[in-house]
Design a protein that fits this description.
Distance between the termini: 24 Å
CATH superfamily of the largest domain: P-loop containing nucleotide triphosphate hydrolases
Oligomer: single chain
Strand content: 25-35%
Helix content: 10-25%
CATH architecture of the largest domain: 3-Layer(aba) Sandwich
Length: 306
């Protein structure tokens, strides 16, 4: 049978095959492979005579959300075979981390994934602030759907639900932004553990310790991933990075030099757009930060691992 990995814990993988959910172990030869299995992976499973289930093989991946794993010195796939990234950011507590948001969106762009920005805790917006915090207006101008929602009051959840339909969407963002609360609100009965934000630090505490793929019916799935405070994309090509920023694209063919990295080269159309206010300063600084990381990578990272 073929199935999809929903979650894993202690070497046991929960796999959905048809209308069944099976707890499976790994065939020995797979354990010796180059990387681990991620939620969302499509696998071949076999039911054994003793009633147990075993994963016999892993099918090739398509879209994925991945980052560098510094502990294992290779790529860590957070979710495989995904169609869309929903980058979750909060109005406050914790304060919005726009550099992290930019990195999540850049990875989505470089992996040809749809992306949207979910602004949670919209109930904390003060009078006169409008539907969005000012820092998020640059993303709407760049063409991203920016959805103000509140897991607490339920506002905006109908719009978000419509955008999840018939897709495998991974929720990603910092601890404390309310990803688990959103899942609980979107999927009644899920009952994921929700943490509080520290009074002194203003930062969230990890409540999701491993990824989980939640079926919403039909071909719709929602992946809840552990909160991230730092997100280092893997296998970045410096020459392609500018394409990960949507608002850069109209200017990329107008630079004086064809190999322009948009740092300080004369005749750079991207720099000109920043000076003219057509590209926001903080988005440009996010690009420079990612460019430096890509150029200073000490050695190639092994891809496909956990």
């Amino acid at each position: 049978m073929k199935g999809r990995v929903l979650e894993s814990a202690g070497g046991v993988y929960r796999v959905r095959a048809g209308d069944r959910e099976l707890d499976c172990s790994l065939r020995g030869r797979i354990k010796l492979g180059p990387g681990s299995i991620a939620i969302g992976d499509l696998v071949e499973v076999e039911l054994l005579e003793d009633g147990s289930c075993r994963i016999e093989g892993v099918l090739p991946r398509t879209g994925r959300l991945a980052r560098r794993s510094f502990a294992k010195r290779r790529e860590q796939v957070l979710a495989a075979n995904v169609d869309q990234v929903a980058a979750v950011i909060s109005v406050s507590r914790p304060e919005p981390d726009f550099f992290l948001l930019d990195r999540l969106l850049a990875v989505a762009e470089l992996n040809d994934l749809s992306a949207l920005v979910v602004c949670n805790k919209a109930d904390l917006l003060g009078p006169g602030e409008g539907p969005l915090p000012s820092g998020l207006r640059d993303y709407a101008a760049a063409g991203y759907a920016v959805l103000p929602v509140s897991a607490k009051t339920g506002s905006g959840l109908d719009d978000l639900t419509a955008r999840l339909a018939d897709r495998i969407t991974v929720l990603a963002g910092p601890s404390g932004a309310g990803k688990s609360s959103l899942v609980n609100a979107l999927v009644p009965g899920t009952d994921l553990r929700v943490g509080e934000v520290g009074d002194r630090s203003g930062r969230g505490r990890h409540t999701t310790t491993s990824g989980r793929l939640i079926p919403l019916g039909g071909d719709t799935y929602l992946a809840d991933t552990p909160g991230v405070q730092n997100f280092e994309p893997a296998a970045l090509d410096p020459a392609e990075l500018s394409m990960a920023f949507r608002e850069f694209r109209p200017h990329l063919g107008a630079c004086r030099f064809s190999d322009c990295r948009h740092r300080n080269e004369p005749g750079c159309a991207v720099l000109g757009a920043v000076e003219a206010g057509e590209i926001s300063r903080h988005r440009y600084e996010s690009y420079l930060s990612l460019l430096e990381a890509a150029e200073q990578a000490a050695r190639p990272w092994e891809r496909g691992g956990g």
